[in-house]
Amino acid sequence: MTSRSFTIQVPATSANIGPGFDVVGLSLSLHCTLTVSHRPYSSSKESDEYVHPMITYSGEGANEVPLDPFKNLTTRVALYVLRCHDISRFPSHLVLHVDNEIPFGRGLGSSGAAVIGGVLLGNELGRLGLSTERLLDFALMVERHPDNVTAALVGGFVGSYLKELDEVDEAAANVPLSEVLPEYPPDANENWGLNPPKPPQGIGHYVRFGWSESIRAIAIIPRFELSTAKARGVLPTQYSRKDLVFNLQRLAVLTTALGQSPPDPGLIYEAMKDRIHQPYRKTLIPGLPEVTSLITPLTHPGLLGICLSGAGPTILALATENYENIAEDVRKIFQKFDILIDWKVLEVVGGSSVTENH
Ligand SMILES: Nc1ncnc2c1ncn2[C@@H]1O[C@H](COP(=O)(O)OP(=O)(O)O)[C@@H](O)[C@H]1O
Ligand SMILES: N[C@@H](CCOP(=O)(O)O)C(=O)O
């Protein structure tokens, strides 16, 4: 038993930024913070008994998140990482407090943050010393699109791809999620379910793009949840060459244009348009086409571009000024569809951190 106490902090993310579906992500200044410590033993008898982790939780999602460590996403991921290293259970007497600023199911990467938090937690509890590349492999076994988890782990404006794997590794990387994160039986013991499917090496690759310091992200957050799974379910499996080229042209320009100072709204507004996911998701997000077409750099000076954040329903407006005016005009459009919103001006921040508490 160790009395070590540490804090893991993971940022929110906005994926896609218009044309970069499943490719680009941006880490933003809302955080999920896990404080990890150990409950002191009250007697020597108690010190011999194994005690499961105790989770407490505050902030976004507090009324829906499971506090059972075998059901909570973060601790399930941590246990997966431990089991892959022949460690069959959490340390005894573990105490976790989660304070979460990232709203659930809004397209701000709450699940990606929970997964990265879990991977880092497993790495710390097992003192595994995993590299960034390997941490990402574990995250990609759970969250299978790289955009959110990569940006949450390394921070900034990031592009990523999944490496082409040989047949054996491809099969290993695509085992059903239920095998990676099994439903633990209530009587799970330390011999249960060892030998989990391990990630192949080097599944994800990424690069960080430049980001102009003058750009802020306005997150306009509708007051309803949309699960990423549901918003992926409405997408087609095939696209026309015209639509693919439309997105590729814009993404190629966007990744450099957002790093230029001063940023050029004439270039960026058009480069944040998309034909791969947003047109299909409008059925789930009333008002989306109106918001992305009526709020422009001409009507709203300071605006650079506007798109769906991740799988939605949050709208991401990138701007250098005039934040309130932009957000309030988006509010007026959503009001016509009986949708209430909250909005926040966010900064682009660094990636996840682990710090010791003294
Ligand atoms: N901090 C957290 N701890 C545990 N589970 C979480 C946490 N954050 C998110 N989740 C899980 O992820 C779900 C949301 O994931 P998802 O539908 O992908 O939306 P999002 O766009 O917010 O990532 C939540 O309903 C919850 O089950
Ligand atoms: N590329 C994914 C991103 C999902 O992000 P989230 O924040 O909504 O989980 C998608 O568009 O489905």
Automatic annotation (TrEMBL):
InterPro entries cross-referenced by the UniProt entry: GHMP_kinase_C_dom, GHMP_kinase_C_sf, GHMP_kinase_N_dom, GHMP_knse_ATP-bd_CS, Homoserine_kinase, Ribosomal_Su5_D2-typ_SF, Ribsml_uS5_D2-typ_fold_subgr
PROSITE patterns: GHMP_KINASES_ATP
Pathway: Amino-acid biosynthesis; L-threonine biosynthesis; L-threonine from L-aspartate: step 4/5
Keywords of the record: Amino-acid biosynthesis, ATP-binding, Kinase, Nucleotide-binding, Threonine biosynthesis, Transferase
Residue ranges of domain GHMP kinase C-terminal in the record: 264-332
Enzyme Commission (EC) number: 2.7.1.39
Domain of life: Eukaryota
Residue span(s) of domain GHMP kinase N-terminal: 72-156
Catalyzed reactions per annotation: L-homoserine + ATP = O-phospho-L-homoserine + ADP + H(+)
Keyword Kinase: yes
GO biological process terms held by the UniProt record: threonine biosynthetic process
GO molecular function: ATP binding; homoserine kinase activity
HAMAP family recorded: Homoser_kinase
Family affiliation: Belongs to the GHMP kinase family. Homoserine kinase subfamily.
Protein name listed in UniProt: Homoserine kinase
